[in-house]
Design a protein that fits this description.
This protein has 420 residues and is of the alpha/beta class. It is built from 18 helices and eleven strands. The chain has helices at residues 3-11, 47-53, 55-64, 75-85, 99-111, 117-128, 132-138, 157-172, 189-198, 209-221, 259-269, 292-298, 307-314, 330-344, 346-352, 355-373, 396-406, 413-419; strands at 17-20, 26-29, 39-43, 68-72, 179-183, 201-206, 228-232, 242-248, 270-283, 320-327, 377-385. The strands form two sheets. A seven-stranded mixed sheet has the order 7-6-5-8-9-11-10. A hairpin with a 5-residue loop joins strand 1 and strand 2. Helix 4 (75-85) runs parallel beside helix 16 (355-373) and helix 11 (259-269) packs across helix 13 (307-314). The longest helix has 19 residues, at 355-373.
Length: 420
């Protein structure tokens, strides 16, 4: 039995995988399961060697180059088949790297982990300065490129992203007249939403020139450019005082050596009664390394932190962690929407770039879907305050404000109190 066949035999027990080798021979692995779609793949010349040499990056690049052809099913079906058979919580996955591979990965990853300011801008540009047309093809109309919040089953991506913004803003407990900083503001959707719903003045900062152009134009078009401002600046260089700070989907680019500097800078920018909400992808388990495919093609310098690593960043800085929420499957649902929209926009994406880019993007999104559905990734929403008195005693205010934000005709209790 070929070495790669031995791997398939161990990796696939539920669901059926058919492999057609370079010489035309085929083998079937696993048992049919109605919960998992059957998948058939065909290896082109040299594909097996590429995968055995570097399973993670080799498999991705072989697929991108058309060296691995999926005859039945698609890339998400294939990755689901492997991931569903090797769930993170089962702790016996044959997909987990061995001790020697883990050591090599850690050594290589450590070399590229330091995220200096000059490299940060280049890393951000690699991903976020892609054509805006690409993001319009698979994101919601507000270009929310982070985990949505599915408050009910079956709602649209647009509604889930609106609900995400309401969920976050409710936790911030923003009062009229406050100043808010949005670190990693993207295309400006969260900043504009905050001003619209609360009247607060907002400063959004980004390292993406393309995002900055769009965000500023949106503020001008909405007639709020004097209240919602956007700057091309590293968060480490921001000055002033803010009542509230929000950061959504940016912390993954900070780099573990800089977590302490991040939290120290945030504390410096917060008023004595200030509150910060951090929304980040996180590891459900221990610290790890970023896979080679993601580092090379998607997020250079990116790293998904364990909760223990985040804690080391703020401990001893006289913060109160005032709330923790773990979103388990919300990002899997979000990514499923993005993946399906990407498939539907195949011709447009190939027209923007090429077939290889399209395959890369499909592999990226499909890999993320299974990482949240079966792997060890979650989303954390962490709330911090400099003061023990800045927020209400119970979490009830969050639910009350969130309901009011999702029903625009209602006035929040906080707003009503101010009016009285």
């Amino acid at each position: 039995m070929a070495l790669i066949d031995r791997f398939f035999a161990r990796a696939v027990k539920r669901g059926q995988l058919t492999v057609i080798h370079e010489d035309g021979s085929s083998r079937i692995f696993g048992e049919a399961d109605p919960a998992l779609k059957p998948v058939t793949i065909r290896f082109g010349s040299g594909a097996t060697r590429r995968i055995l040499r570097d399973p993670s990056l080799g498999a991705a690049e072989a697929f991108m180059d058309g060296n691995v052809e999926i005859v039945e099913g698609d890339i998400l079906d294939m990755l689901t088949l492997f991931a569903a058979n090797n769930r993170w919580e089962d702790n016996d996955s044959v997909l987990f790297p061995g001790a020697f591979k883990k050591l090599l990965d850690k050594l290589a990853f450590r070399l590229g982990r330091i995220n200096m300011q000059r490299r940060s801008k280049r890393n951000v540009a690699h991903h976020y300065d892609l054509s805006g047309k690409l993001y319009d093809l698979f994101l919601d109309t507000d270009r929310q490129y982070s985990c949505a919040y599915f408050s009910e089953a079956g709602i649209s991506l647009e509604q889930a992203q609106l609900d995400k913004k309401a969920h976050i803003v409710a936790k911030l407990a923003i009062e009229p007249g406050m100043k808010v900083l949005d670190i990693g503001c993207g295309w400006g959707g969260m900043a504009l939403y905050i001003h619209e719903k609360t009247g607060a003045e907002v400063l959004g900062v980004t390292l993406s020139e393309e995002q900055l152009k769009v965000a500023r134009q949106r503020a001008i078009d909405a007639g709020v450019a004097d209240k919602v401002k956007f700057e091309l600046i590293d968060y480490r260089n921001v000055t002033g005082q803010f009542d509230r700070i929000v950061s959504v989907g940016m912390f993954e680019h900070v780099g573990t050596p800089h977590y302490r500097a991040f939290f120290r800078k945030v504390r410096e920018l917060l008023t004595p009664q200030g509150v910060m909400l951090l929304h980040t992808i996180g590891r459900a388990g221990a610290p790890g390394v970023t896979d080679a495919f993601t580092l090379k093609y998607i997020f250079p310098g990116g790293y998904i932190p364990a909760l223990s690593e985040i804690a080391k960043g703020y401990e001893g800085l006289r913060y109160f962690m005032t709330d923790v929420e773990v979103l388990r499957l919300h990002y899997a649902e979000t990514l499923q929407h993005w993946y399906e929209r990407t498939l539907a926009a195949r011709d447009a994406i190939v027209g923007l770039y090429d077939e290889r880019f399209y395959r890369m993007w499909c592999f990226y999104l499909a890999g993320c879907v299974v990482s949240f559905r079966y792997g060890g990734l979650v989303n954390y929403q962490l709330q911090f305050s400099r003061s023990r008195e800045a927020l209400p005693l119970t979490r009830d205010y969050m639910f009350e404000e969130e309901r009011a934000l999702r029903e625009p005709h209602k006035v929040t209790l906080r707003q009503a109190g101010k009016a009285g």
